[in-house]
């Protein structure tokens, strides 16, 4: 496992970007959620929130460090996962109790997962958010989650990637086809820097996106090769035992979930067929076969 780089809880990264850690480290969130205060003037845009109560205290202490009358005018949320949206209520409550302007909260709506009491303003693809010294363009990037949005900071030619790209390691995803499409979409911006949802800043942004794309396509080619070599149908577990033979078996269940998402993508593309009917977890763990007419 990669050793995590130590990150300060408050960091002025550039003249217009400040990182405030979510204080929620774990094996899934790495050093914790990266939340960002954006802008060069007194009105800051906050990107994502930390889910822990102590995060809110850290956030407003950070604002005080920046000077008098610094406020959060808007909060923009990358996606519905609690480690990104979980602090919205406490940030609004703190602002209200301390006679501060209430930030407007923006998010790509997801009725299945959004809490009913949240009054989110819908984010549109290519919508522009502006504050002093910063113009931020919303980029719909489904894959990690259906509602995921990344944000392009024009002044720095940088992207806030949310959980599409992490500062260390690789991320998980719900739909592999959409995820790879989103990586290609971000790559077209040719960013120099990436501000990820977790982990340190990435300076070689375009190269990192290419690395993510290549990694996924290499894994896909490995899976297809296993079908060609075996000349028979295979289960996801059998594929994992071959491809991940050098990895600890404790990682195999997570690897199997990833392999299944690859198989689903290849089925949609007409490369594989699932031999068990249905789309429940048990049938997805059943036998899959190569459609040889494709090769």
TrEMBL record:
One of its GO terms (molecular function) is hydrolase activity. Belongs to the metallo-beta-lactamase superfamily. Glyoxalase II family. The keyword Zinc applies. Residues 32-198 form the Metallo-beta-lactamase domain. This is 11259_t:CDS:1. CDD domains: LACTB2-like_MBL-fold. Pfam families: Lactamase_B, WHD_BLACT. GO terms for biological process: secondary metabolite biosynthetic process. It comes from the Eukaryota. Keywords: Hydrolase, Metal-binding, Zinc. The keyword Zinc applies.
